[in-house]
Amino acid sequence: MAILSGCRTHTGCRYILMSAMTKDENQRLAAVKTLQALVEKKLNIGTSGNVSVRTIEGMLITPTGINPALLLPEQIVAMDLEGQVAEDQLTPSSEWQMHADVYREKPDVNAIVHCHSPYATILACAHKSIPAVHYMVAAAGSDEIPLAGYATFGSKELSQANLEALSGSLACLLANHGQLATGENLDQALKLAELVEEQAHCYWGTLAIGGPRLLDSQQMNEVLAAFADYGQQKSTNGLPPVKKTDQTLRGKE
Ligand SMILES: [Zn+2]
Predict the structure, then answer these.
(1) Helices (H), 8-109
(2) What's the whole-model pTM score?
C-alpha cells in the first residue's frame, strides 16, 4: 500500500521520500514494541492483544495470531478504514473493525491499545465499570471508566458498543472481554491501558474489603479541572496528558 506523499517543491525529492519511509518504519516498530510491552507489563498473555496507529491512508495494525515476541515490523498490516488490505500482507487483527471505527469517529485518536489485562477483565466479566474510586480515574477523561456492553469479538456490534462507551472517555472496559485505551500516540495509549489496569486492580481490591468510598462529583470535577490545566501545559513540551498529570500529581504527594 502506498504510504508516500511526494515533495511539493521538487519532483522526486528523495529527502521527503526518505522521511516518509522512516515514519512508516518507525510506526511499524512502535507497534511491535507496544505489543511486546503489553506482554512484559503483564497486560496481555498469548496473542489476544492488538494495537494500531493511524496513518494517512487508514491505519497500521498488528496481525492476528502472531506471538508478540516473534512479530516483525514488516508484518504489521497496512489497511484503510473500510477494511481493505493491500495484497501480500498477513491477516489483520480480528478486532480491526473496532480500531477503524474509533479512528473514523474520533479524530483526536491516533493510536489504540486493546488487551485482556487481568483485573480489567475481571471487572468486565462482572459487568462493572470503574467508578471514582481513585482520583486517577480522571486520567481517562471523566469520573468513571465506562463499560461497553457485550458483543461477539470482532463484530460490528462490539465496535458500536465500544464507540458508545468511548463517547465521553479515552478508555473503556469491554464486557466479558477486556479493555481498550486510546491516545494521541502509542506511548500514550499504552500508558492509559496501564492506568486502566491499575485502577481496575484498585477497585477490585476495595470490593474485597467491603467496598470503596468513592470520590463525589465535586471532588472529581476539581481533579478533571486540574488535569485540564496540566493538559494545556503539555502543548508546549509535547508530553502526553496522562503521563504528565500522573508524574505531576504523584510528585506532589
Ligand atoms: Zn480482545
Answers:
(1) 14-40, 96-105
(2) 0.84
